[in-house]
What does this fold into?
Amino acid sequence: MKKLNNISQIKPLLEASVKPRVVITTHHKPDADALGSSLGLWHYLNKLGITSTIVTPTDYGDFLKWMPGELEVVNFEEFEQKGTDLVAEADLIFCLDFNALKRINNLGLLVAKSDAKKVLIDHHLEPEGFEDYRLWTTKASSTSELIFWLMELMGHMDHLDEDISSCLYAGIMTDTASFKHPSTTPTTHRVAAMLLERGAKSNRIFEAVYDNYSESRTRFIGYCLSQKLQILKEYNTALIVVNAEELKQFQIITGDSEGLVNYGLSISGMQLSVLIIDRTVARKMSFRSRDQFPANEFARKHFNGGGHFNAAGGESSDPLEMVEWKFKEALKDYKNLLQLKP
Ligand code: 5GP
Ligand code: MN
It folds into this structure.
């Protein structure tokens, strides 16, 4: 049975005289929405006199390190004991921008074991339901937009300041691909407008996120587009496969491959764009599709992944060549869905 949004029930917990110990966590390799929503909530809780700690399962890209409060984030990979203790001692754990505990790696086991009440705030399809309280809808552009709604629901809009607004604006901007995806609603624009009114600087945030890459990352993108792009014409699909040697050659670090998969979809007629990267632990895949191709279903069925209808991800422990082969095999069943509409 689908759970109902019952997040208003946490109001007494937030307003109690004995403040809860709070952990905020988000999915591995956090993007701007994951980190922006977490920091937005962190600042908001501070305003309520509640001390919280953000524990991320992994590190994240340098393009997020301008966010106010970022220095306080605890990376579980780096500070495992501290993260373990924080989760064990928490009364309340906010789980932001993910729908299944496996998305937070080993931290998921600790969260599942913890006696803390769990609060899910998310916009991904089909949450698995580990939480006690939820604010969930796929109609929100981003989790950052949901943090805004939370503040509104709690009657705390007076707390919305420049720091919170900047973090939330970054999350909305990136999850909507700068207000371009169909998830961008009139409400998204109204929320963004309010964030600008409260101090978010849209041009500065855009520059900090998108115009802040290293020279080698830019050359890497050029290399992938000129040397590595495969066009599978029969399937209207663009594919880029990057091996470990190439990642090393261009000194690719976390966050550098962000956005690369979108280029394939910018080619006229392409219905699907796929990026396969040979990361140390696993082969990581990104899927972006147009129209009727269910990227999340494809990722779930074939590559242990998920996500949104037109933007999803997955991974595999197979060697890179095998993953590429399996992907091309899997594609054969989707030929009809990948044809251009007349
Ligand atoms: P990206 O390609 O940018 O890593 O991810 C695109 C979307 O797919 C995001 O909404 C992300 O949450 C989701 N996603 C990415 N990787 C995975 C994965 O391994 N499992 C699941 N369930 N979702 C993923
Ligand atoms: Mn998101």
Remarks:
- The chain has two domains: 7-210, 215-338.
- The mean pLDDT is 96.
- The first helix runs from residue 11 to 15.
